[in-house]
Design brief:
single chain, 182 residues, alpha/beta, seven-stranded parallel beta sheet, six-stranded parallel beta sheet, 13 strands, flat
Length: 182
């Protein structure tokens, strides 16, 4: 009887996970508090850097229904990277300053990346492999953006009012793409 009850619990968790991940993809907004409430407590990572030659790296792998990453950089010569391998992941990156570069990779389901880069030589390279992925990238500077999404239900929004040189690759079902730039 014990293996059967364990199997039933596992099936219930998987059903709950899929319903939860669908709710998460709709709940992710620029309001970080709303997004973080949908992630299990204790799986969050925050980096806040003010200064000159800043560097950041967050790697959260193998999550079971968790992970939330927030990187804030103000200054010059900033670089940030986030890698999440798992499920229900969320990355928020804000870079304000000079010579900024950001890279984010997510593999799993219900992942989201929200990026804001303001001022000067900004670049972003983002890759998402999985289901229900969302990009929301805003750049204002010498923008160079590359985003690649593979999976189902992906949505990409790139807003670069003064930027140039962008590449968006999408492979999947129910894909939506939007870009504003020169």
């Amino acid at each position: 009887m014990r293996p059967l009850s364990s199997l039933l619990i596992l099936c219930a968790l998987q059903a709950s996970f899929h319903a939860y991940s669908a709710d998460l993809s709709y709940a992710l907004t620029p309001d970080l508090a709303a997004a973080e409430q949908h992630i299990i407590n204790g799986t969050s990572a925050y980096i806040n850097q003010n200064g000159y030659g800043n560097t950041s790296l967050i790697e959260q792998s193998g999550s079971f229904l968790g992970n939330f990453a927030n990187i804030e950089q103000t200054g010059s010569n900033n670089w940030a990277k986030a890698v999440q391998i798992g499920d229900l992941n969320f990355v928020n990156m804000n870079q304000y300053g000079n010579d900024n570069y950001a890279n984010a990779e997510q593999r799993g389901s219900s992942n989201s990346i929200i990026l804001t880069q303001a001022l000067n030589g900004n670049q972003f390279n983002g890759v998402q492999n999985g289901n229900n992925n969302i990009f929301n990238a805003t750049q204002n500077g010498n923008s160079l953006i590359s985003m690649s999404a593979q999976g189902n239900g992906n949505s990409i929004n790139a807003n670069m009012p003064a930027g140039t040189n962008y590449q968006i690759n999408i492979i999947g079902d129910n894909v939506k793409a939007s870009s504003v730039g020169q």
